[in-house]
Structure formats: C-alpha cells, structure tokens
Write a structure and sequence with these properties.
This protein is mainly α and 317 residues long. Helices cover 76% and strands 2% of the residues. The longest helix is centred in the middle third of the chain and has 34 residues, at 93-126. The N and C termini lie far apart (79 Å).
C-alpha cells in the first residue's frame, strides 16, 4: 500500500511563489542580465580568438572560463524568461533532469577550471624557464578535457542515482531544478544519494581549494625569494584569480549549506536571490574582473570596439 503513494511525475512545479505577481518586471531583469552576460563573455572570447598575442595558456583558460559561464547561464536564463513572461510554473521531469545536469556540470567545471588556472600560475611563476614546455597547447587541451570529464562523470553518476528515486511530491523549492531539490521530494531512503552528494561537494569545496592553496603557497615562496619587480608582476597576474576563486568558493559553500540544512528558514526573496547568485555572479564577474584587471585583454577589447565603431561610421558615410 505504501508504494501507491509514490509518483513518477511527468511535470514538476517550480517555486516562483510571489514572483508571479510582478513576473513581467522579473522577466525583463532576467533578459537584461542574460544579454549582459552574453556581451561581457563574448567580448573576452572574441578578443582572445582574434589576437594572436593573447593566444597563450593563461588567456586560453580565461576564454574557457567565459565559455563555461555562457553554458551555465544559457541553461537557466532563457527558460527563466519564458517561465516568467508566459506565467509558466511547471517543467517536465526530463527537462528538469536536463537542467540539473547542465547547472551542476557548469558549477563543477567552474571550480575545476579555476584549479587548473592555479596550476598554470604556479608553473609560470615557479618554473618560468620550463613554462612553455610544461604548458604546451597539448598539455593545456588535456588539462581542460580532464577538468570537464572529471565533473561530467561525477555529475552523471549523481543524476543516475537521482533518477532511480520515486517521488512523493512535485514542488521544487527553487525557480530552477537542481539535484537536491529533486532528491528531497522522494519518500524513500536517500542515504546513498546524500552520501554521494557529500562526496562530490567535498571534492569541489575542499579538495579543489586545497590544491589551489598548495599552488599559491609555492607561489608565495617563490615571490619571497625574488625581486620586488617579480613580486609585483606575480601579484598582477594572480589577483584576478584570487578574487574570483574566493568569491565563487564562498558562495558555493553558502549555497550548499543553506539548501541542505535550512531551506525554508529565510524569506522567499532572500532565498531566490541566494539561489541564483551562482548563476549570475561568476558569468558577470569573471569577464569583468579579467577585462578590467588584465591590461592586455582590456586594451584589445577597447581596440575591438573602436574598430567596430569605425566600420559602422564608414558604412553610414
């Protein structure tokens, strides 16, 4: 008799709540933020692709970071805009699982790519004479593929464990689907899911930061033994990465803790803001930080837009 209460729903309800009242305003905000993300990230990617002087491992990793930001935001904002504008608060189960895969692989790849970037900075500063040999294009490609595959494999296993669960409810707490929001709807034992989820979380908010810290410990040691000019250059190249990794890791930790242990303790508006900050913050902050702090990228972006303006003026004439 107990199994009769289990559901295998074709649709799930998203937690838009009070947002439905002012849905058109929020839909415009969502579209504006998404267009901003597209502009910022595409500007950095295009600049790196078009200028051979920027086709080095560091700038390649920055481009990959921007591509990942486009991937993550595209898995969320278009559907959010449609849901708000057309007052749709349901999503198909398959669509929900697909969004879970996209968002979780985006979040995981963000951390693995930042970890690879820390290794790149370590090799550049601590082994400058061997840098070109160690960080060849082949090595860079292998590191990026490894960073992606590591996340994809873990997330895929996590989703397979989730799909096997029968559900007893259909209401998602968030305005998008994530794995924990689906798992909490199940009325069977979820110990395996919880255990594997904690394992994945520990690798991304513990293991990866530890690897990054180890890289920077070696960088600090190299800087202590070097000249003032060397330290200034090292600080210039490492500061953007440190800002981004600190912001991302702290937000990821807060997100995991809040929705696992106190998902309904905060007001609705605060919950919604905190639930989307990982999908809004990094895709905007990453190109903004690198575009402003990295002189080479900043100059090339300005040149790119000046060239476009010149072409437009010539066309008008």
């Amino acid at each position: 008799m107990e199994n009769s209460t289990y559901l295998h729903p074709s649709t799930l309800f998203l937690g838009f709540g009070e947002m439905a009242v002012t849905r058109y305003i929020y839909s415009v905000i969502a579209l504006s933020v998404y267009m901003t993300i597209l502009l910022f990230n595409c500007s950095v990617i295009t600049t790196v692709v078009l200028h051979k002087s920027l086709q080095e491992p560091m700038y390649f990793f920055i481009s990959i970071l921007c591509i990942n930001g486009l991937y993550g935001s595209s898995s969320f904002f278009p559907s959010l805009f449609v849901n708000l504008f057309f007052k749709i608060n349901v999503i198909s189960y398959i669509g929900c699982i697909t969004q879970v895969f996209c968002i979780h692989t985006y979040l995981g790849c963000e951390m693995t790519i930042l970890t690879v970037m820390a290794y790149d900075r370590y090799v550049c500063i601590c082994n400058p004479l061997r840098y070109n040999n160690i960080m060849s294009l082949t090595s860079v490609a292998k590191l990026v593929v490894l960073a992606w595959m590591y996340t994809v494999v873990l997330v895929s296993i996590h989703i397979v464990l989730t799909i096997r669960l029968p559900l007893c409810d259909r209401v998602i707490l968030k305005i998008y689907c994530d794995n924990w929001s689906i798992v909490r709807l199940s009325c069977v034992d979820t110990t395996v899911n919880n255990g594997f989820g904690l394992f994945i979380a520990s690798t991304f908010i513990a293991l990866m930061p530890v690897l990054i810290i180890c890289s920077y410990i070696q960088i600090i040691k190299a800087c202590v033994r070097s000249s003032k000019d060397f330290r200034a250059k090292a600080l210039q190249t490492c500061t953007p990465h440190l800002i981004i990794i600190t912001n991302y890791a702290s937000n990821l930790l807060f997100e995991l803790l809040m929705y696992r242990f106190i998902p309904t303790e905060f007001p609705f508006e605060l919950r919604m803001v905190m639930s989307v900050q990982l999908l809004v913050g990094p895709p905007i902050i990453n190109p903004l930080i690198y575009g402003l702090k990295m002189k080479e990228i900043r100059i090339r972006i300005i040149q790119l837009y000046h060239l476009q303006d010149s072409k437009v003026n010539d066309t008008k004439m």
